[in-house]
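User: Hey, quick favor. My workstation is busy. Could you predict this chain's structure for me?
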Amino acid sequence: MMHSSNQARAGLTLVEMLAMVGIIGLGIGLLLPAVQARRESARRQHCADNARRLAEACLQHEAAQRFLPSGGWGWAWCGDPDRGYGRSQSGSWLYSILPYLDQRSLHDTGLGTTGTAKRAAIAALAGTPVATFYCPSRRPPVAYPDTWTSWWRGGYVDHTAPALVAKTDYAANAGAGIFSADLPIPMSVAEADGGTFGWARTDDPSLGSYCSGVIYYRSQLELAMVRDGLSNVYLLGEKFLQTDQYTSSIDRGDNQNAFVGFEGDNHRVTNPAWPPKQDLPGVEDKRCFGSAHALGYSAAFCDGSVRTVSYTINPETHRRLGNREDRQPVDQTDL
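Assistant: No problem, here it is.
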């Protein structure tokens, strides 16, 4: 009888078991936010590393070609391996830096081909995602829908884009001025090469203030032209995007592939009217920088450094950081 009584007292009553489960649940509840915060911190660091890799690739491009990658010919054109670099290249700055991201084979897709083979190659290029182009806090590095298929020139003739294409969560600094899609886009290679569409200049009235940055429409900019100091001018940064449209491609700042020329998908500006902001649901703005991170967005500067820029940055400081030669002082503590 005594042995049986001791066995009964050794077990847990229902009340004690419920209390223990409650304590464990409380502990998990307290621990979960810390785990989530640590994971987001790791994702934010990964994102900053992506921005650093992209900046390093841009600087390697500048060292090899003697100018930063060009912004390309506009939204109707895609990267073309037979067009070289600089203002002759129809595709985006992201396309031009592929060789400096160990993606030479992707960059050279379709090299030397023509006609149907060229079109198929460019479609394959457009549909190939590059992991470095994606922020891990936002979406996996896979292909997403292309919702701008009315006409997609792809470097040669009009045709429909692939259903799923590569995207980018990073945009180049186009400048501190206006931003619009109303740019003179060449309708053929012959027209582009014929001189009608010269490279963008800060004194070109047809382009307004597009070209006060470092990568923009048909640019071919040497680092020596960044006269405000390489550590005082943005090179690139994360772009703002709607939180509820990360995978849909409905946002007009994310509706094409990463390799098309100058577009809101791959360029942003620092006009005070469009300050940087954290991603929001139901808000579309293809002009401003931003990110999914709560503390700020990752911005790479022309010296290759990467810093977190607060969404509350002084608008005038933000504007100055977008202009390569306004000769205005920048207070780094405002970041």
